[in-house]
Amino acid sequence: MYIVQIASECAPVIKAGGLGDVVYGLSRDLEDRGHCVELILPKYSNMRYDHIWGLHDAYLDLQVPWYGGVIHCTVHCGWVHGRLCFFIEPHSDDMFFDRGLYYGCEDDPKRFAFFSKAALEFLLRSNKRPDILHCHDWQTGLIPVMLFEMYKYHGMEHQRVLYTIHNFKHQGHAGADILHATGLNREAYYFDPARLKDNFNPFAINFMKGGIVYSNHVTTVSPHHAWEAHHGTCGFGLGHTLHVNQHKFSGILNGIDYAMWNPATDAHIDHPYSLSTFEDKALNKKALQERLLLRAADDKPLVAFIGRLDEQKGVHLVHHAMYHALKRSAQFVLLGSATEKKINDWFWHEKTHLNDNPDIHLELGFSEELAHAIYAGADLIVVPSNFEPCGLTQIISMKYGTVPVVRGVGGLLNTVFDWDYDTTHPLEARTGFVFYETDNYAVESALDRALDLYYNEPKLFQQLAQQGMQYDYSWRQSGDQYVALYNQIRHK
Ligand code: ADP
Question: Which domain, by its residues, includes 390?
Protein backbone atom coordinates (compact mmCIF):
# COMPACT_ATOMS: atom_id res chain seq x y z
CA MET A 1 0.00 0.00 0.00
CA TYR A 2 1.07 3.58 -0.59
CA ILE A 3 0.45 5.67 2.53
CA VAL A 4 1.14 9.37 3.06
CA GLN A 5 1.20 10.67 6.63
CA ILE A 6 0.32 14.35 6.90
CA ALA A 7 1.04 15.93 10.26
CA SER A 8 2.46 18.95 12.06
CA GLU A 9 5.12 16.87 13.89
CA CYS A 10 7.48 13.97 13.31
CA ALA A 11 10.06 12.99 15.95
CA PRO A 12 12.86 13.74 16.37
CA VAL A 13 12.97 16.48 13.75
CA ILE A 14 9.76 18.20 14.92
CA LYS A 15 8.53 17.15 18.33
CA ALA A 16 6.39 18.97 20.87
CA GLY A 17 4.89 15.81 22.40
CA GLY A 18 3.58 12.34 21.68
CA LEU A 19 2.19 13.19 18.22
CA GLY A 20 5.75 13.39 16.87
CA ASP A 21 6.69 10.01 18.35
CA VAL A 22 3.59 8.35 16.93
CA VAL A 23 3.93 9.76 13.40
CA TYR A 24 7.54 8.58 13.21
CA GLY A 25 7.06 5.22 14.94
CA LEU A 26 3.98 4.21 12.97
CA SER A 27 5.62 5.20 9.66
CA ARG A 28 8.65 3.12 10.46
CA ASP A 29 6.55 0.11 11.38
CA LEU A 30 4.52 0.39 8.16
CA GLU A 31 7.70 0.54 6.10
CA ASP A 32 9.11 -2.47 7.92
CA ARG A 33 6.00 -4.32 6.79
CA GLY A 34 6.79 -3.44 3.17
CA HIS A 35 4.41 -0.53 2.63
CA CYS A 36 5.51 2.61 0.85
CA VAL A 37 5.30 5.51 3.31
CA GLU A 38 5.95 9.22 2.80
CA LEU A 39 5.41 12.12 5.17
CA ILE A 40 4.36 15.69 4.48
CA LEU A 41 5.33 18.25 7.14
CA PRO A 42 5.69 22.02 7.43
CA LYS A 43 9.23 23.32 7.04
CA TYR A 44 9.61 25.13 10.36
CA SER A 45 12.64 27.35 10.78
CA ASN A 46 13.28 25.97 14.27
CA MET A 47 13.07 22.23 13.60
CA ARG A 48 16.05 19.93 14.29
CA TYR A 49 17.82 20.12 10.91
CA ASP A 50 20.59 17.96 12.35
CA HIS A 51 18.17 15.00 12.14
CA ILE A 52 17.53 15.39 8.39
CA TRP A 53 19.76 13.66 5.85
CA GLY A 54 20.14 14.77 2.24
CA LEU A 55 17.76 17.72 2.29
CA HIS A 56 17.15 18.88 -1.30
CA ASP A 57 14.53 20.65 -3.41
CA ALA A 58 11.79 18.34 -4.61
CA TYR A 59 9.28 20.78 -6.14
CA LEU A 60 10.55 24.21 -6.93
CA ASP A 61 7.53 26.37 -7.49
CA LEU A 62 4.39 24.91 -6.00
CA GLN A 63 1.67 27.51 -6.45
CA VAL A 64 -0.88 27.11 -3.70
CA PRO A 65 -4.21 28.90 -4.27
CA TRP A 66 -4.94 31.16 -1.29
CA TYR A 67 -7.55 33.93 -1.00
CA GLY A 68 -8.07 33.99 -4.76
CA GLY A 69 -4.32 34.47 -5.42
CA VAL A 70 -1.43 32.07 -4.90
CA ILE A 71 1.40 31.59 -2.42
CA HIS A 72 4.56 30.23 -3.99
CA CYS A 73 6.11 27.36 -2.06
CA THR A 74 9.22 25.23 -2.30
CA VAL A 75 8.85 21.61 -1.29
CA HIS A 76 12.05 20.13 0.15
CA CYS A 77 12.73 16.47 0.61
CA GLY A 78 15.01 14.59 2.99
CA TRP A 79 15.30 11.51 5.19
CA VAL A 80 14.56 11.59 8.90
CA HIS A 81 16.19 8.46 10.30
CA GLY A 82 15.19 6.55 7.18
CA ARG A 83 11.72 8.07 6.64
CA LEU A 84 11.16 10.03 3.44
CA CYS A 85 9.80 13.44 4.39
CA PHE A 86 8.56 16.35 2.28
CA PHE A 87 8.77 19.75 3.95
CA ILE A 88 6.59 22.58 2.66
CA GLU A 89 8.07 26.05 2.73
CA PRO A 90 5.75 28.89 1.78
CA HIS A 91 7.26 32.16 0.54
CA SER A 92 5.01 34.91 1.81
CA ASP A 93 5.00 37.79 4.23
CA ASP A 94 2.89 35.68 6.60
CA MET A 95 6.04 33.69 7.51
CA PHE A 96 3.73 30.84 8.53
CA PHE A 97 6.46 28.45 9.71
CA ASP A 98 9.26 30.89 10.24
CA ARG A 99 8.46 31.98 13.78
CA GLY A 100 10.79 30.04 16.03
CA LEU A 101 7.94 27.91 17.41
CA TYR A 102 5.62 25.15 16.25
CA TYR A 103 2.36 26.26 17.85
CA GLY A 104 0.99 29.08 19.96
CA CYS A 105 0.34 31.86 17.42
CA GLU A 106 -2.99 33.64 17.18
CA ASP A 107 -3.27 32.68 13.52
CA ASP A 108 -2.53 28.95 14.08
CA PRO A 109 -5.79 27.95 12.33
CA LYS A 110 -4.74 29.94 9.29
CA ARG A 111 -1.17 28.55 9.34
CA PHE A 112 -2.36 24.95 9.36
CA ALA A 113 -5.27 25.50 6.97
CA PHE A 114 -2.61 26.73 4.57
CA PHE A 115 -0.40 23.70 5.30
CA SER A 116 -3.36 21.39 4.61
CA LYS A 117 -4.13 23.11 1.33
CA ALA A 118 -0.47 23.03 0.30
CA ALA A 119 -0.16 19.31 1.14
CA LEU A 120 -3.09 18.46 -1.13
CA GLU A 121 -1.84 20.75 -3.87
CA PHE A 122 1.58 19.08 -3.66
CA LEU A 123 0.05 15.61 -4.03
CA LEU A 124 -2.09 16.76 -6.95
CA ARG A 125 0.65 18.60 -8.87
CA SER A 126 3.36 15.99 -8.32
CA ASN A 127 0.99 13.24 -9.45
CA LYS A 128 1.22 11.37 -6.18
CA ARG A 129 -1.85 9.22 -5.70
CA PRO A 130 -1.50 7.37 -2.39
CA ASP A 131 -4.05 4.77 -1.37
CA ILE A 132 -4.31 6.35 2.06
CA LEU A 133 -3.86 9.84 3.44
CA HIS A 134 -3.37 9.45 7.16
CA CYS A 135 -4.08 12.83 8.76
CA HIS A 136 -3.36 13.73 12.38
CA ASP A 137 -5.07 16.12 14.79
CA TRP A 138 -6.83 19.43 14.18
CA GLN A 139 -4.00 20.84 12.07
CA THR A 140 -4.98 18.51 9.20
CA GLY A 141 -8.74 18.33 9.83
CA LEU A 142 -9.53 20.30 6.66
CA ILE A 143 -7.68 17.83 4.41
CA PRO A 144 -10.54 15.32 4.08
CA VAL A 145 -12.96 18.23 3.66
CA MET A 146 -10.98 19.68 0.76
CA LEU A 147 -10.22 16.24 -0.69
CA PHE A 148 -13.83 15.14 -0.89
CA GLU A 149 -15.30 18.54 -1.78
CA MET A 150 -12.68 19.75 -4.27
CA TYR A 151 -9.64 17.61 -5.09
CA LYS A 152 -11.71 14.53 -5.73
CA TYR A 153 -12.99 16.30 -8.84
CA HIS A 154 -9.47 17.08 -10.06
CA GLY A 155 -8.12 13.56 -10.31
CA MET A 156 -7.95 12.43 -6.68
CA GLU A 157 -11.12 10.36 -6.58
CA HIS A 158 -9.48 7.14 -5.32
CA GLN A 159 -7.75 8.50 -2.22
CA ARG A 160 -9.10 7.56 1.22
CA VAL A 161 -8.53 9.26 4.56
CA LEU A 162 -7.87 7.90 8.02
CA TYR A 163 -8.00 10.67 10.60
CA THR A 164 -6.35 10.15 13.99
CA ILE A 165 -7.15 12.40 16.93
CA HIS A 166 -4.34 12.62 19.47
CA ASN A 167 -5.92 15.36 21.57
CA PHE A 168 -9.55 16.49 21.51
CA LYS A 169 -8.82 19.60 23.51
CA HIS A 170 -7.32 21.47 20.58
CA GLN A 171 -9.79 21.49 17.71
CA GLY A 172 -8.91 24.44 15.48
CA HIS A 173 -11.59 27.12 15.17
CA ALA A 174 -11.85 29.84 12.55
CA GLY A 175 -14.38 32.11 10.93
CA ALA A 176 -15.79 32.04 7.40
CA ASP A 177 -12.61 33.74 6.29
CA ILE A 178 -10.76 30.40 6.14
CA LEU A 179 -13.39 28.99 3.79
CA HIS A 180 -12.54 31.77 1.36
CA ALA A 181 -8.80 31.40 1.86
CA THR A 182 -8.85 27.69 1.04
CA GLY A 183 -11.32 28.03 -1.85
CA LEU A 184 -14.04 26.05 -0.11
CA ASN A 185 -16.17 29.25 -0.24
CA ARG A 186 -19.89 28.35 0.08
CA GLU A 187 -20.37 29.65 3.64
CA ALA A 188 -23.97 28.55 4.03
CA TYR A 189 -23.10 24.99 2.96
CA TYR A 190 -20.22 24.55 5.41
CA PHE A 191 -21.86 26.44 8.29
CA ASP A 192 -24.20 23.52 8.70
CA PRO A 193 -24.31 21.52 11.95
CA ALA A 194 -23.83 18.34 9.89
CA ARG A 195 -20.63 19.70 8.33
CA LEU A 196 -18.12 22.14 9.83
CA LYS A 197 -20.18 24.41 12.07
CA ASP A 198 -18.87 24.27 15.62
CA ASN A 199 -21.28 22.54 18.02
CA PHE A 200 -21.25 25.54 20.39
CA ASN A 201 -20.05 28.65 18.58
CA PRO A 202 -22.39 29.44 15.67
CA PHE A 203 -19.83 31.80 14.13
CA ALA A 204 -16.98 29.29 13.95
CA ILE A 205 -16.05 26.36 11.79
CA ASN A 206 -14.32 23.51 13.61
CA PHE A 207 -11.42 21.80 11.80
CA MET A 208 -11.52 18.66 13.91
CA LYS A 209 -15.24 18.27 13.39
CA GLY A 210 -14.60 18.53 9.64
CA GLY A 211 -11.99 15.79 9.98
CA ILE A 212 -14.47 13.53 11.77
CA VAL A 213 -17.38 14.18 9.42
CA TYR A 214 -15.47 13.80 6.14
CA SER A 215 -12.87 11.07 6.83
CA ASN A 216 -13.48 7.46 5.89
CA HIS A 217 -12.54 6.39 9.39
CA VAL A 218 -11.57 8.18 12.61
CA THR A 219 -9.41 6.85 15.41
CA THR A 220 -8.17 8.11 18.71
CA VAL A 221 -5.13 6.78 20.49
CA SER A 222 -6.52 4.30 23.02
CA PRO A 223 -9.68 2.21 23.33
CA HIS A 224 -10.58 3.71 26.71
CA HIS A 225 -10.19 7.27 25.45
CA ALA A 226 -12.44 6.46 22.47
CA TRP A 227 -15.12 5.56 25.00
CA GLU A 228 -14.44 8.65 27.17
CA ALA A 229 -14.56 11.01 24.18
CA HIS A 230 -17.81 9.52 22.90
CA HIS A 231 -19.65 9.09 26.18
CA GLY A 232 -17.90 11.39 28.65
CA THR A 233 -16.55 14.92 28.70
CA CYS A 234 -13.22 14.12 27.00
CA GLY A 235 -14.61 14.91 23.55
CA PHE A 236 -14.60 18.61 24.50
CA GLY A 237 -17.93 19.25 22.80
CA LEU A 238 -17.48 16.74 19.96
CA GLY A 239 -19.24 13.86 21.77
CA HIS A 240 -22.38 14.34 19.68
CA THR A 241 -20.39 14.40 16.43
CA LEU A 242 -18.65 11.18 17.50
CA HIS A 243 -22.02 9.68 18.33
CA VAL A 244 -23.39 10.47 14.89
CA ASN A 245 -20.23 8.99 13.35
CA GLN A 246 -19.78 6.09 15.77
CA HIS A 247 -19.93 3.54 12.92
CA LYS A 248 -16.51 4.79 11.76
CA PHE A 249 -14.86 5.67 15.08
CA SER A 250 -12.53 3.48 17.17
CA GLY A 251 -9.51 3.55 19.48
CA ILE A 252 -6.07 2.07 18.74
CA LEU A 253 -3.45 2.16 21.46
CA ASN A 254 -0.23 3.95 20.52
CA GLY A 255 2.94 1.94 20.36
CA ILE A 256 6.47 3.19 20.91
CA ASP A 257 9.44 2.73 18.65
CA TYR A 258 11.79 0.38 20.49
CA ALA A 259 14.64 1.40 18.19
CA MET A 260 14.38 4.84 19.77
CA TRP A 261 13.30 3.79 23.27
CA ASN A 262 15.32 0.82 24.44
CA PRO A 263 17.59 0.87 27.51
CA ALA A 264 19.79 -1.83 25.96
CA THR A 265 20.73 0.27 22.93
CA ASP A 266 19.99 3.86 23.98
CA ALA A 267 22.88 6.13 22.94
CA HIS A 268 21.71 8.85 25.34
CA ILE A 269 22.26 6.84 28.49
CA ASP A 270 25.56 6.15 30.20
CA HIS A 271 25.02 2.52 31.14
CA PRO A 272 22.86 0.42 28.80
CA TYR A 273 20.91 -2.36 30.51
CA SER A 274 18.24 -4.92 29.85
CA LEU A 275 16.08 -7.25 31.89
CA SER A 276 19.02 -9.60 32.46
CA THR A 277 21.36 -6.78 33.54
CA PHE A 278 18.73 -4.84 35.47
CA GLU A 279 21.18 -4.05 38.28
CA ASP A 280 22.96 -1.65 35.86
CA LYS A 281 19.94 0.63 35.98
CA ALA A 282 21.32 1.81 39.35
CA LEU A 283 24.42 3.15 37.54
CA ASN A 284 22.17 5.39 35.47
CA LYS A 285 20.52 6.66 38.63
CA LYS A 286 23.94 7.58 39.99
CA ALA A 287 24.88 9.26 36.70
CA LEU A 288 21.64 11.24 36.73
CA GLN A 289 22.20 12.34 40.32
CA GLU A 290 25.68 13.52 39.39
CA ARG A 291 24.53 15.26 36.23
CA LEU A 292 21.79 17.16 38.06
CA LEU A 293 23.88 17.82 41.18
CA LEU A 294 21.58 15.80 43.40
CA ARG A 295 22.82 14.21 46.58
CA ALA A 296 24.29 10.78 45.76
CA ALA A 297 22.02 8.52 47.76
CA ASP A 298 21.10 5.15 46.35
CA ASP A 299 18.78 4.38 49.25
CA LYS A 300 16.50 7.29 48.26
CA PRO A 301 13.87 6.52 45.64
CA LEU A 302 14.06 8.90 42.69
CA VAL A 303 10.66 10.07 41.45
CA ALA A 304 10.34 11.85 38.10
CA PHE A 305 7.89 13.77 35.95
CA ILE A 306 8.43 14.33 32.22
CA GLY A 307 5.84 16.19 30.20
CA ARG A 308 4.20 19.40 29.15
CA LEU A 309 3.41 21.55 32.20
CA ASP A 310 -0.21 22.19 31.40
CA GLU A 311 -3.66 21.71 32.96
CA GLN A 312 -4.08 18.48 30.99
CA LYS A 313 -1.11 16.94 32.75
CA GLY A 314 -2.48 17.73 36.23
CA VAL A 315 0.14 20.36 37.13
CA HIS A 316 -1.31 20.88 40.61
CA LEU A 317 -0.88 17.22 41.37
CA VAL A 318 2.62 17.23 39.89
CA HIS A 319 3.42 20.10 42.24
CA HIS A 320 1.95 18.24 45.19
CA ALA A 321 3.76 15.01 44.28
CA MET A 322 7.02 16.96 44.25
CA TYR A 323 6.65 18.14 47.82
CA HIS A 324 5.18 14.87 49.01
CA ALA A 325 8.16 12.96 47.62
CA LEU A 326 10.52 15.28 49.51
CA LYS A 327 8.48 14.81 52.67
CA ARG A 328 8.89 11.05 52.29
CA SER A 329 12.69 11.45 51.93
CA ALA A 330 12.64 10.67 48.22
CA GLN A 331 14.28 12.67 45.43
CA PHE A 332 12.41 14.35 42.60
CA VAL A 333 13.38 15.32 39.05
CA LEU A 334 11.06 17.29 36.80
CA LEU A 335 11.56 17.89 33.08
CA GLY A 336 8.80 20.00 31.59
CA SER A 337 7.98 23.03 29.57
CA ALA A 338 4.99 25.32 29.93
CA THR A 339 3.50 27.44 27.17
CA GLU A 340 1.14 29.22 29.57
CA LYS A 341 2.85 32.15 31.29
CA LYS A 342 1.09 31.62 34.61
CA ILE A 343 2.29 28.02 34.88
CA ASN A 344 5.75 28.88 33.60
CA ASP A 345 6.14 31.63 36.22
CA TRP A 346 4.89 29.29 38.94
CA PHE A 347 7.43 26.57 38.18
CA TRP A 348 10.26 29.08 37.74
CA HIS A 349 9.39 30.39 41.18
CA GLU A 350 9.53 26.83 42.56
CA LYS A 351 12.82 26.22 40.82
CA THR A 352 14.38 29.27 42.44
CA HIS A 353 12.88 28.43 45.80
CA LEU A 354 14.19 24.84 45.71
CA ASN A 355 17.51 25.66 44.12
CA ASP A 356 19.65 24.68 47.10
CA ASN A 357 17.77 21.52 47.96
CA PRO A 358 20.04 18.56 47.08
CA ASP A 359 17.08 16.21 46.58
CA ILE A 360 15.20 17.94 43.80
CA HIS A 361 15.94 19.30 40.35
CA LEU A 362 13.52 21.14 38.08
CA GLU A 363 14.58 21.40 34.43
CA LEU A 364 12.24 23.79 32.66
CA GLY A 365 12.52 23.34 28.92
CA PHE A 366 12.57 20.60 26.31
CA SER A 367 15.45 18.15 26.10
CA GLU A 368 15.14 14.84 24.31
CA GLU A 369 18.57 13.76 25.58
CA LEU A 370 17.81 14.49 29.24
CA ALA A 371 14.44 12.74 28.92
CA HIS A 372 16.23 9.48 28.02
CA ALA A 373 18.60 9.86 30.98
CA ILE A 374 15.67 10.42 33.35
CA TYR A 375 13.67 7.43 32.07
CA ALA A 376 16.77 5.31 32.70
CA GLY A 377 17.77 6.85 36.04
CA ALA A 378 14.45 7.24 37.87
CA ASP A 379 12.75 4.62 40.02
CA LEU A 380 9.24 6.01 39.68
CA ILE A 381 7.42 8.32 37.29
CA VAL A 382 4.23 10.21 38.12
CA VAL A 383 1.57 10.82 35.48
CA PRO A 384 -1.36 12.50 37.29
CA SER A 385 -3.15 13.70 34.13
CA ASN A 386 -6.62 15.23 34.13
CA PHE A 387 -7.15 13.45 30.84
CA GLU A 388 -4.71 11.42 28.77
CA PRO A 389 -5.68 10.16 25.30
CA CYS A 390 -2.91 7.55 25.39
CA GLY A 391 0.16 8.80 27.21
CA LEU A 392 3.61 7.70 26.12
CA THR A 393 5.61 8.59 29.22
CA GLN A 394 4.23 5.64 31.22
CA ILE A 395 4.82 3.27 28.28
CA ILE A 396 8.39 4.48 27.81
CA SER A 397 9.13 4.37 31.53
CA MET A 398 7.94 0.77 31.78
CA LYS A 399 10.40 -0.21 29.05
CA TYR A 400 13.12 1.39 31.19
CA GLY A 401 12.01 -0.43 34.35
CA THR A 402 10.72 2.80 35.91
CA VAL A 403 7.49 2.20 37.77
CA PRO A 404 4.54 4.44 36.77
CA VAL A 405 2.18 6.05 39.28
CA VAL A 406 -0.76 7.24 37.19
CA ARG A 407 -4.28 8.57 37.29
CA GLY A 408 -6.72 6.01 35.89
CA VAL A 409 -7.88 7.82 32.75
CA GLY A 410 -7.63 7.26 28.99
CA GLY A 411 -4.69 5.23 27.77
CA LEU A 412 -3.17 5.17 31.27
CA LEU A 413 -5.95 2.81 32.25
CA ASN A 414 -5.21 0.59 29.23
CA THR A 415 -1.51 0.28 30.06
CA VAL A 416 -0.90 0.44 33.84
CA PHE A 417 -2.27 -2.27 36.14
CA ASP A 418 -2.30 -1.54 39.85
CA TRP A 419 0.02 -3.63 42.00
CA ASP A 420 -2.40 -3.80 44.93
CA TYR A 421 -5.88 -3.55 43.50
CA ASP A 422 -6.05 -4.64 39.86
CA THR A 423 -8.69 -7.32 39.49
CA THR A 424 -8.13 -8.32 35.86
CA HIS A 425 -4.41 -9.15 35.93
CA PRO A 426 -2.57 -11.59 38.21
CA LEU A 427 0.11 -10.11 40.47
CA GLU A 428 2.91 -11.12 38.09
CA ALA A 429 1.33 -9.11 35.24
CA ARG A 430 0.82 -5.85 37.16
CA THR A 431 2.88 -2.83 36.31
CA GLY A 432 2.36 0.20 38.56
CA PHE A 433 0.06 2.21 40.82
CA VAL A 434 -3.24 3.80 39.84
CA PHE A 435 -5.39 6.45 41.54
CA TYR A 436 -8.63 7.94 40.34
CA GLU A 437 -9.60 11.16 42.10
CA THR A 438 -8.10 14.56 41.26
CA ASP A 439 -7.26 15.70 44.79
CA ASN A 440 -3.93 15.73 46.60
CA TYR A 441 -4.83 12.76 48.81
CA ALA A 442 -5.35 10.56 45.78
CA VAL A 443 -1.88 11.11 44.33
CA GLU A 444 -0.40 10.98 47.84
CA SER A 445 -1.91 7.62 48.63
CA ALA A 446 -0.76 6.03 45.36
CA LEU A 447 2.71 7.52 45.74
CA ASP A 448 2.82 6.32 49.34
CA ARG A 449 1.99 2.78 48.26
CA ALA A 450 4.80 2.94 45.71
CA LEU A 451 7.32 4.43 48.16
CA ASP A 452 6.35 1.95 50.87
CA LEU A 453 7.02 -0.92 48.49
CA TYR A 454 10.39 0.64 47.58
CA TYR A 455 11.43 1.14 51.20
CA ASN A 456 9.94 -1.98 52.78
CA GLU A 457 9.99 -4.60 50.04
CA PRO A 458 12.86 -3.72 47.71
CA LYS A 459 12.84 -7.14 46.04
CA LEU A 460 9.16 -6.88 45.24
CA PHE A 461 9.68 -3.34 43.96
CA GLN A 462 12.34 -4.62 41.57
CA GLN A 463 10.05 -7.42 40.49
CA LEU A 464 7.31 -4.88 39.68
CA ALA A 465 9.76 -2.73 37.68
CA GLN A 466 10.87 -5.78 35.71
CA GLN A 467 7.30 -6.85 35.03
CA GLY A 468 6.72 -3.56 33.22
CA MET A 469 9.83 -4.15 31.10
CA GLN A 470 8.37 -7.38 29.80
CA TYR A 471 5.32 -5.83 28.16
CA ASP A 472 5.44 -5.38 24.42
CA TYR A 473 4.13 -1.93 23.53
CA SER A 474 5.98 -1.83 20.23
CA TRP A 475 4.07 -0.96 17.05
CA ARG A 476 3.64 -4.66 16.24
CA GLN A 477 0.04 -4.99 17.42
CA SER A 478 -1.11 -1.42 16.80
CA GLY A 479 0.49 -1.53 13.34
CA ASP A 480 -1.63 -4.60 12.54
CA GLN A 481 -4.74 -2.68 13.52
CA TYR A 482 -3.85 0.36 11.40
CA VAL A 483 -3.11 -1.81 8.35
CA ALA A 484 -6.45 -3.58 8.81
CA LEU A 485 -8.21 -0.20 8.90
CA TYR A 486 -6.34 1.10 5.86
CA ASN A 487 -7.44 -2.01 3.97
CA GLN A 488 -10.98 -1.64 5.15
CA ILE A 489 -11.35 1.96 3.93
CA ARG A 490 -9.31 1.41 0.77
CA HIS A 491 -11.92 -0.94 -0.59
CA LYS A 492 -14.85 1.35 0.12
P1 ADP B 1 1.55 14.62 25.01
O2 ADP B 1 1.55 14.16 23.60
O3 ADP B 1 0.20 14.93 25.57
O4 ADP B 1 2.51 15.73 25.26
P5 ADP B 1 2.58 11.94 25.62
O6 ADP B 1 2.78 11.26 26.93
O7 ADP B 1 1.71 11.26 24.63
O8 ADP B 1 2.08 13.42 25.94
O9 ADP B 1 4.00 12.15 24.90
C10 ADP B 1 4.99 12.93 25.47
C11 ADP B 1 6.29 12.73 24.71
O12 ADP B 1 7.03 13.95 24.74
C13 ADP B 1 7.20 11.69 25.33
O14 ADP B 1 8.06 11.16 24.34
C15 ADP B 1 8.00 12.53 26.34
O16 ADP B 1 9.23 11.90 26.67
C17 ADP B 1 8.20 13.79 25.54
N18 ADP B 1 8.35 15.02 26.33
C19 ADP B 1 7.39 15.74 26.94
N20 ADP B 1 7.90 16.84 27.53
C21 ADP B 1 9.23 16.81 27.29
C22 ADP B 1 10.32 17.67 27.64
N23 ADP B 1 10.13 18.77 28.36
N24 ADP B 1 11.56 17.33 27.21
C25 ADP B 1 11.75 16.20 26.49
N26 ADP B 1 10.77 15.35 26.13
C27 ADP B 1 9.52 15.65 26.53
Answer: 275-473
